[in-house]
Amino acid sequence: MGIESRARRTGALGSSAAQPVSGPGAGPLSRAGEGQGEGRARSGEFSTLTPTLSRTGEGARRGSRGRVPEQPGAADGLGWPQIVRLGLVQTALGSVVVLMTATLNRVMVVELALPAFVPGLLVALHYAVQVLRPRWGYGSDRSGRRTPWIVGGMAALCLGGFGAACGTALAAENLALGLALAALSFLCVGMGVGAAGTSLLVLLSGGVAPARRGAAATVVWVMMIVGFAVTAPLAGHFLDPFSGPRLVAVSGTVSLVAFGVAALALAGVERRLPVRAPEPAEARRPFFTVLARVLADPVARTFTVFVFVSMLAYSAQELILEPYAGLVFAMTPGATTKLAGLQHGGVLAGMLLVAAVTLLARGTALASLRLWIGIGCAGSAAALFALASGAAAGSGFPLRTTVFALGVANGAYAVAAIGSMMALAGRGDARERGTRMGVWGAAQGVAFGAGGFLGAVAVDAVRLVTAEPVQAYAAVFAAEGLLFLVAVVLAARLDSAPAPDPVPLDPAFSAR
């Protein structure tokens, strides 16, 4: 789920993306009902999203076509050094994204005096491109290797980041040409985040031992947040005194360093895993055929809806929590910024909590990722309902405690959902994992892009029919809480129901 999504808020202090999240932001399924011997999963192993569920997926991998004998050390999978190296890729990704969603946003609004919707629209473009994630995942499935797609995605991301800075600087002289270049660059950033993020998660899902998935998800997402937190203040230091050429130089340096770090971190990692040769051209299934098979799996469909609903609730609070604290509790801008920092601290604490418990309680019910999804979503709902009722309690309401609790629950939900996504992607046919992960990544990206916007619009809409702004915020917080409760129900339905026939798609789209 790429937590690239909250880079906007992290840019001011740190962020989630934790898209975030953008936030990048940005899955484990069975073929139990196919009627084909190859890749059939044991239904008894499917009832819970625990790390042990991926054992069936390991068998499917060994039985899938196109495998060659494992290289030395491949059976061991990825150790902690390799997981940290993949986390460095997330750090590099986050360092570029935070400049796009925070620094350039501020420059356009303040230095260039452009309407706020201009950078908002550009950021929305980068989210909109996430719908192409399934196609990029399919491409990595066909090639048999993930590393080229990660490196290629990082190249597109870094070029897009540099191009966006050039477009922003150019807009000071030629507004139309500068914004056109910025728009193309944000599209490039979206494609890069999608291609790199999808293949990185698939690489993790196939290479990390089941018991380590929760902790591995925490490592890579915390390292993305580190990318936000380190780059924003360093870039800010070198941007003063501000000028267009200085912006271009700082962005170019960050992009170049980020690409170099990602490329070096990836070197040799995939060679530790079993090698899968590219599919022969005559054996390749068209993209829409594979997509139909993924959508035909009821677990995949349910998890897709779960990701969309939960991420919609997760992101809808992004633009309204600080205004709520200012309007209802008369907090100053500095105090609300500290409040946001407290929430992010809670997110980090929740992530670390799930990582520690799933590692230390291996083989017990406490190691179940589905359990932590439920706890995280239910806890988030409870905190949001408390915020909705907080205005009535007046100044005695424990706002800081509630916001911290919301962060902890959000963090627990996020890392458990990402770990489950990795597990579910690893359970299916090895030739479909990238497509599966892409479907869930697309749901996450679209939901996160829409959530912040819809949350703010909902507050404005409710304020049109109520005299008190407090009631508008309370209504939206309550709606977010209900969405999290729906997510709890959806997570509980992730079982081993057999897959029906593939969903029919228009044959006109069945080009390879």
UniProtKB/TrEMBL annotation:
<keyword id="KW-0472">Membrane</keyword>
<feature type="transmembrane region" description="Helical">
    <location>
        <begin position="177"/>
        <end position="203"/>
    </location>
</feature>
<keyword id="KW-0812">Transmembrane</keyword>
<feature type="transmembrane region" description="Helical">
    <location>
        <begin position="470"/>
        <end position="492"/>
    </location>
</feature>
<dbReference type="InterPro" id="IPR036259">
    <property type="entry name" value="MFS_trans_sf"/>
</dbReference>
<dbReference type="InterPro" id="IPR026036">
    <property type="entry name" value="PucC"/>
</dbReference>
<feature type="region of interest" description="Disordered">
    <location>
        <begin position="1"/>
        <end position="74"/>
    </location>
</feature>
<feature type="transmembrane region" description="Helical">
    <location>
        <begin position="108"/>
        <end position="129"/>
    </location>
</feature>
<comment type="similarity">
    <text>Belongs to the PucC family.</text>
</comment>
<dbReference type="GO" id="GO:0016020">
    <property type="term" value="C:membrane"/>
</dbReference>
<feature type="transmembrane region" description="Helical">
    <location>
        <begin position="83"/>
        <end position="102"/>
    </location>
</feature>
<dbReference type="Pfam" id="PF03209">
    <property type="entry name" value="PUCC"/>
</dbReference>
<feature type="transmembrane region" description="Helical">
    <location>
        <begin position="290"/>
        <end position="314"/>
    </location>
</feature>
<protein>
    <submittedName>
        <fullName>PUCC protein</fullName>
    </submittedName>
</protein>
<dbReference type="InterPro" id="IPR004896">
    <property type="entry name" value="PucC-rel"/>
</dbReference>
<feature type="transmembrane region" description="Helical">
    <location>
        <begin position="437"/>
        <end position="458"/>
    </location>
</feature>
<feature type="transmembrane region" description="Helical">
    <location>
        <begin position="247"/>
        <end position="269"/>
    </location>
</feature>
<keyword id="KW-1133">Transmembrane helix</keyword>
<feature type="transmembrane region" description="Helical">
    <location>
        <begin position="215"/>
        <end position="235"/>
    </location>
</feature>
<feature type="transmembrane region" description="Helical">
    <location>
        <begin position="149"/>
        <end position="171"/>
    </location>
</feature>
<feature type="transmembrane region" description="Helical">
    <location>
        <begin position="341"/>
        <end position="361"/>
    </location>
</feature>
<feature type="transmembrane region" description="Helical">
    <location>
        <begin position="373"/>
        <end position="397"/>
    </location>
</feature>
<feature type="transmembrane region" description="Helical">
    <location>
        <begin position="403"/>
        <end position="425"/>
    </location>
</feature>
<feature type="compositionally biased region" description="Polar residues">
    <location>
        <begin position="46"/>
        <end position="55"/>
    </location>
</feature>
